[in-house]
Design a protein that fits this description.
The structure is a single chain. The chain has 113 residues and is mainly alpha-helical. It has two domains: 1-69, no CATH class; 70-103, no CATH class. Helix content is 51%, strand content 9%. It is built from four helices and four strands, in the order H-H-E-E-H-H-E-E. It has helices at 3-14, 36-55, 71-84, 88-99; strands at 59-61, 67-69, 107-108, 111-112. The strands form two sheets. The protein has a two-stranded antiparallel ribbon. Strand 3 (107-108) and strand 4 (111-112) form a beta hairpin.
């Protein structure tokens, strides 16, 4: 069962609405009300994707020797396959993600920059 399916069942039974425990989260969602559960599902799935990505060899070592996913290498390897997908919904999603890509966190003077 996907998170969104189990979450819908849970939120129906606990009376907390469509977002369940996420309703009081101070995060400002950049999507409409009905898509908030999808945003949560996306981030959970995204986080679960990083570990196997590193296991598959898309791995780089930071200066402090911690493992980090090699996103740029992965993007270059899958770009041709993604470009070949013609479904309008996929193209719309890719257009949104490429026009507003997630920013990388950097450290400047011991604080997030």
């Amino acid at each position: 069962m996907l998170l969104s399916e189990s979450h819908k069942q849970e939120s129906t039974s606990n009376g907390e609405g469509d977002l369940g425990p996420y309703r009081s989260n101070p995060i400002s969602y950049p999507v409409g009300e009905k898509d908030k559960a999808n945003v949560v599902t996306f981030f959970v799935m995204f986080c679960r994707f990083e570990y196997p990505l590193k296991q598959a060899g898309y791995l780089m070592r930071s200066k402090d020797r911690t493992a980090a996913p090699a996103w740029d290498k992965y993007v270059m390897d899958v770009k041709r396959a993604f470009d070949a997908i013609t479904q309008p919904a996929f193209k719309d999603a890719m257009g949104y993600l490429t026009s507003k890509p997630p920013r990388k966190q950097v450290v400047r003077e011991n604080t997030l920059g």
